[in-house]
Specification:
- By secondary structure, the chain is α+β, with helices and mostly antiparallel strands.
- Helices cover about 15% and strands about 35% of the residues.
- The strands form five sheets. A six-stranded antiparallel beta barrel has the order 3-4-5-11-7-6. Strands 2-12-14-13 form a four-stranded antiparallel sheet.
- A hairpin with a 5-residue loop joins β9 and β10.
- The protein is flat.
């Protein structure tokens, strides 16, 4: 097949086990200019009271009347092979009735995985991509989403994802778009490049590659070579019509016979 339409294996497939993991946690944003959660958001007041008690300040939740605190959910993505000390971007989303998170600071928040373990800690000033303003009269103006913000590099990895390549004697590749023809081409390309029967297709979306003896102590070099191999993915004959704009997209496998339009 022509290499003009070829793609690298790393662009059309991923390695099983090497993937990002989602983290999330509950936290408090302080320092808001009267745009925090209202009195009816009980979990915010209770969370603030619990935090103060943890710091040695005993106060009843019924006595707290503030409008500069908001309860939020913090989320981040833990990339594969992220080591302790690596910084992650954090997304902050209000879960109460706060009007805006502008000018707020996220207090130290634990970010957990689906297994309940703490993998990162987040804290820092929030940057939002919008604003909300109102005057003395009724009405106001809001741009974008002032109740969602980000903290670039605001989380620090405290625990690593327990995945290692050292004990692997084979690698499993998963195709982004399963196809029997594409997976067969990948197997043929790998075996031809390495001169052996290293690769074998399991199904339309999965293939297994045995690690040669010469690469047992240097699996990174093997993965680098595998990822750079080019394969021409197969596509189905498809026609996409956008009735709103009148645009028609025709795939390369489509063949037009004698027709009347």
């Amino acid at each position: 097949p022509s290499t003009a339409r070829s793609a690298r294996i790393k662009d059309i497939a991923s390695i099983k086990g090497i993937r990002p993991n989602q983290l999330f946690g509950y936290g408090l944003v302080i320092g808001l200019n009267g745009s925090g959660d209202g009195r009816r958001t009980g979990f915010t007041i209770q969370g603030l009271a619990n935090m103060l008690e943890h710091l040695g300040v005993r106060v009843s939740a019924d006595e707290i009347k503030v409008s500069n605190v908001a309860a939020v959910m913090a989320s981040a993505t833990l990339p594969p092979f992220a080591r302790i000390g690596k910084n992650l971007d954090v997304t902050i989303s209000s879960i109460g009735d706060a009007k805006s998170l502008q000018g707020g600071t996220l207090l130290l928040t634990q970010l957990r995985g689906v297994d309940g373990e703490v993998y990162a800690l987040a804290q820092g000033p929030i940057s939002i991509g919008g604003f909300s303003a109102s005057g003395a009269a009724e009405g106001g103006v809001t741009k974008n989403h002032p109740t969602v913000g980000r903290i670039p590099g605001g989380a620090t990895v405290e625990k690593e994802n327990p995945f290692s390549l050292e004990d692997k004697d084979s690698l499993t590749f998963i195709l982004d778009n399963p196809d029997f023809t594409t997976v067969s081409r990948i197997v043929k390309t790998i075996n031809s490049d390495f001169g052996g029967d290293l690769a074998a297709a399991i199904d339309s979306g999965t293939l297994r590659v045995q690690i040669p003896e010469s690469f047992r102590e240097n699996k990174v070099a093997l993965l680098s070579q595998l990822e750079e191999l080019e394969v021409t993915p197969d596509t189905v004959a498809k026609v996409v019509v956008n009735e709103k704009t009148g645009t028609v997209v025709i795939g390369e496998k489509v063949r037009v016979l004698t027709v009347a339009v």
